[in-house]
Write a structure and sequence with these properties.
Residues 70-132 are annotated as: Disordered. InterPro entries: Cyclin-like_sf (IPR036915), Cyclin_PHO80-like (IPR013922). This protein is mostly helical. Helices cover 48% and strands 0% of the residues. The chain has helices spanning 22-34, 52-70, 87-97, 148-156, 169-179, 184-200, 211-226, 233-240, 244-257, 266-282, 286-293, 303-309. The N and C termini lie far apart (83 Å).
Amino acid sequence: MGEVAGSDNKTCPKAPNPCADARLEAEEKAQGTADSMLVVDGEEWDFALATATGAVKLLITAVSALAEITGDVPPTPPASRPTTPSEKAFESKQEKRSEPRYPMSPVSPVSPASNNGTAILPVAMPSPEAHRDEPIPEVGVGAQAETRVIQQMAISRRFFLKTVPPFTLSQYLLRLHQYCPHSPGVYLTAAAYVHRLCVTDTLVPATNKTIHRVCLAAIRVASKALEDHKWSQDRVAKVGGVSRKELKSLEVNLCFLLDFDLFVREAELKRRVYELQEAAKQGISIKKRLSISFGSRLPVRTISEATEVG
């Protein structure tokens, strides 16, 4: 077989590296200053109107308003107190800390840095309310089975912080958008997840102690559900002010509360984004609805006892 003429002079182009493209960063900054918040007029609105900055601003505005409406809702107490960690567990944790860090993205071997190479400063996120190894009640089978509500309430504790963060949700998510930008679809899908958790199912109350972790987990899960190329776990965790394990735990807990129903159809997405926006505008009685199912004590009845009473 004959060789293709001129094949020796042709080389494959290099793989694109967005992190090293200064022009893209300048365009993102210019677009970010020009983009206004996305406002939808009804359940039928055009996706083409949404920009990444406009979508994240809609998420920020709606969730912040829900937090103001809800007020301060205390988390449910743990199902049982966490056990004292053993010396062996402490030693294994120290060994893991000494492991080398992974690259921040598949195309950038650089350690935690922004698009222009400057270091990403850590964010001072308060301690979570729930212990990382805090047990979650298992939904068993038979007379001793715990109700699903108990398990959901134990999982929802993972999104609570002990104190309100020293920064607003706007500062937090705009920082995430600056260092780990996502597409408009990711932010809108995250808004749909938040609407399910905080408004429709009321599994997690939207308060100033929960909205940061809820939004971080929702954006991360939405990006994994929609995008082919994602930011690395290390980078998102550092920008979000959590550890890699804690970020993974938040993702898993969010998936459990959503019953792993992560796919959102176009009509449902438009409806939930609109309803989230309207819930924030109209100030619906979220707090009253939460007080029914989100008490300060865990229910202690088993399924059999509840059946006998009913």
